[in-house]
Automatic annotation (TrEMBL):
<keyword id="KW-0813">Transport</keyword>
<dbReference type="InterPro" id="IPR027417">
    <property type="entry name" value="P-loop_NTPase"/>
</dbReference>
<dbReference type="InterPro" id="IPR017911">
    <property type="entry name" value="MacB-like_ATP-bd"/>
</dbReference>
<dbReference type="GO" id="GO:0089705">
    <property type="term" value="P:protein localization to outer membrane"/>
</dbReference>
<keyword id="KW-0067">ATP-binding</keyword>
<keyword id="KW-1003">Cell membrane</keyword>
<protein>
    <submittedName>
        <fullName>Lipoprotein-releasing system ATP-binding protein</fullName>
    </submittedName>
</protein>
<dbReference type="GO" id="GO:0005524">
    <property type="term" value="F:ATP binding"/>
</dbReference>
<comment type="similarity">
    <text>Belongs to the ABC transporter superfamily.</text>
</comment>
<feature type="region of interest" description="Disordered">
    <location>
        <begin position="209"/>
        <end position="233"/>
    </location>
</feature>
<dbReference type="GO" id="GO:0005886">
    <property type="term" value="C:plasma membrane"/>
</dbReference>
<dbReference type="Pfam" id="PF00005">
    <property type="entry name" value="ABC_tran"/>
</dbReference>
<keyword id="KW-1278">Translocase</keyword>
<dbReference type="GO" id="GO:0022857">
    <property type="term" value="F:transmembrane transporter activity"/>
</dbReference>
<keyword id="KW-0547">Nucleotide-binding</keyword>
<feature type="domain" description="ABC transporter">
    <location>
        <begin position="2"/>
        <end position="232"/>
    </location>
</feature>
<dbReference type="InterPro" id="IPR003439">
    <property type="entry name" value="ABC_transporter-like_ATP-bd"/>
</dbReference>
Length: 233
C-alpha cells in the first residue's frame, strides 16, 4: 500500500509500498525512527485513514472499498484502539467510558454495562468502576482505555505507543496485560512502540524505515524467555 499526503504542489509519500500480512492471534510490534510512518500505517490498518493506493483485506473483505457508514460499523465491530493518550471522557466513570463503543455499536445498555464491567475486571479494575479518569492513576486510566478497546471483542487490537506516557513499572503492568490478552483471548495485537524492551519480548518485530518495512523478525519472544527462565537452575 502507498500513502501520500498532499500539501499544495508537494506530495509527501509516507508509506512507500508496504506489504504486510498478519495471522490471526499474532502479536507484532512495529519499531522504527520517528517519522518512519508507523502511526500512519496503524491508522490505515485501523481504517481511520485510507491508503492512497492499494488494498487492505480483512479475510475476504477489502476495506478500502467500503462506504463510510460500512467502514464505521466495520471498525466498531472488528478493531480496538489504544493510543498513547487515553482519550477517556473526563465527566464519565470508568464503567461509562468502557461502555461507549458498545453503545455506539447499538448494544443494549444493560448488556453494554455487563460487558464493560467484565472487561474492567479483566484489566484488574473491578474496584474502580465508578471512578472518573481524574480519580485514577495513569496506569489505571490506560487500563480503562484498554477495557474500552476490548468491549466489542475486536479481532484486532491496534496500540500506538500504549505505554509511552507511563513510568517503567506501570508500563510493565500494561505490557503484562497485553501479553495476557494475546495469550488468553487469542487476540491479534499490533503495537507501535519505541520501547525496545517490549519489542524484544514480542514474537514478531517489524522495523520501518522511511515508509518501508525493512526488517521482519520472528522469534520466541516472551514465551521463549519464560521457558528458558523456567529451565534455569
Ligand atoms: N496528516 C498528515 N499530513 C501531512 N503529513 C503527515 C500527516 N501525518 C503524518 N505525516 C507525516 O508522515 C510522516 C510519518 O508520520 P508518522 O506519524 O506515521 O511517523 P511515526 O513513525 O509514527 O513517528 P513517531 O515515532 O514520531 O510517532 C512524518 O514525516 C509526518 O510529518
Amino acid at each position: 500500500m502507498v500513502k501520500e499526503f498532499t500539501h499544495g504542489a508537494q506530495v509527501l509519500q509516507v508509506l512507500r509500498g508496504v506489504d504486510l500480512t498478519l495471522e490471526p492471534g499474532e502479536m507484532v510490534t512495529i519499531i522504527g525512527a520517528s517519522g518512519a510512518g508507523k502511526s500512519t500505517l496503524l491508522h490505515c490498518l485501523g481504517t481511520l485513514d485510507l491508503p492512497t493506493r492499494g488494498s487492505i483485506f480483512f479475510g475476504d473483505t477489502d476495506i478500502t472499498r467500503l462506504s463510510p457508514p460500512e467502514l464505521a460499523s466495520f471498525r466498531n465491530q472488528t478493531i480496538g484502539f489504544v493510543f498513547q493518550f487515553h482519550h477517556l471522557l473526563a465527566e464519565f466513570t470508568a464503567l461509562e467510558n468502557a461502555m461507549m463503543p458498545a453503545l455506539i455499536g447499538r448494544v443494549a445498555v444493560k448488556e453494554a454495562r455487563e460487558r464493560a464491567g467484565e472487561m474492567l475486571k479483566a484489566v484488574g479494575l473491578s474496584h474502580r468502576l465508578n471512578h472518573r479518569p481524574g480519580e485514577l492513576s495513569g496506569g489505571e486510566q490506560q487500563r480503562v482505555a484498554i477495557a474500552r478497546a476490548l468491549v466489542m471483542q475486536p479481532a484486532l487490537l491496534l496500540a500506538d505507543e500504549p505505554t509511552g506516557n507511563l513510568d517503567t513499572r506501570t508500563s510493565d503492568e500494561v505490557h503484562d496485560l497485553l501479553f495476557r490478552l494475546n495469550d488468553e483471548r487469542k487476540m491479534t495485537l499490533l503495537i507501535v512502540t519505541h520501547n525496545m524492551e517490549l519489542a524484544r519480548q514480542v514474537p514478531r518485530r517489524i522495523r520501518m524505515e522511511d515508509g518501508r518495512l525493512v526488517d521482519d523478525q520472528r522469534g520466541p519472544g516472551r514465551a521463549g524467555d519464560e521457558r528458558s527462565a523456567a529451565k534455569a537452575p
